[in-house]
Amino acid sequence: MALNLSGDNSSQRIQQLVSSLQQTLNDPSLSVSAEASIGGTNILGSLETLLANLTGGLTGGNRTPRNIRQVLLGLLNQNVTITTPFEPVTGTLTAVQRDYVVVIETTGNTVLIPIAQIESVTAA
Predict the structure, then answer these.
(1) In degrees rounded to 5, what are phi and psi of residue 23?
(2) CA 115 to CA 124: how far, in whole Å?
(3) What is the structure's pLDDT at 104?
(4) Mean pLDDT of 68-85
(5) Which residues does 123 contact at the CB level (< 8 Å), separation at least 6?
(6) Could you tell me the pTM of the whole model?
(7) Of 9, 14, 33, 44, whose CA is between 20 and 30 Å from 55?
(8) Using CA atoms, how far apart are residues 122 and 32, in angstroms rounded to an integer?
(9) What's the rounded Cα separation, in Å, for the pair 48 and 45?
(10) Residue ranges per structural domain of the chain
(11) Per-residue confidence at 1, pLDDT binned at 50, 70, 90?
(12) Overall fold of domain 66-124
């Protein structure tokens, strides 16, 4: 697949790339494994994080998050408290995947939290 990025400036070309990647990731005819990785790096998660960062960067970072996942991406690598139906989890948000997040508690425990179970999230 060839991608021709035309535009008057780099911002327009990046916007075209972001749009193309979003369309590709949302294409139901493609089979993309969430576990696909290169050198231990999750490809899909990295692309989604890159898209979120690029999109926010192009708009000056003033976009209002549309969903909980976008809020979580904005808090990546920060201390957070995530409320679930079971108990709150506090620690560093180290990964935001398609359907779960990873939090490292101060005790060193790694906690995987399904996004569907998140009731609220706040910066700690």
Answers:
(1) -65, -40
(2) 18
(3) 97
(4) 93
(5) 75, 78, 79, 80
(6) 0.51
(7) 33
(8) 31
(9) 5
(10) 1-63, 66-124
(11) very low
(12) SH3 type barrels. (2.30.30)
pLDDT in tens, 12-70: 777 777 777 667 666 666 655 545 555 555 566 666 666 666 555 554 555 566 788 88
Residue type, 42: N
* pLDDT at 88 > cutoff 70: yes
Q: In the numeric block, which tokens belong to residue 58?
A: 């192009």
CA 64, 78, 92, 41 dihedral sign is positive
Tokens of 41: 């790096």
Read off the tokens for 28.
Answer: 């139901």
The set of residues, in sequence order, having a beta carbon less than 8 Å from that of 93 and lying 6+ positions away, is 72, 75, 76, 77, 78, 79, 80, 82, 101, 102, 103
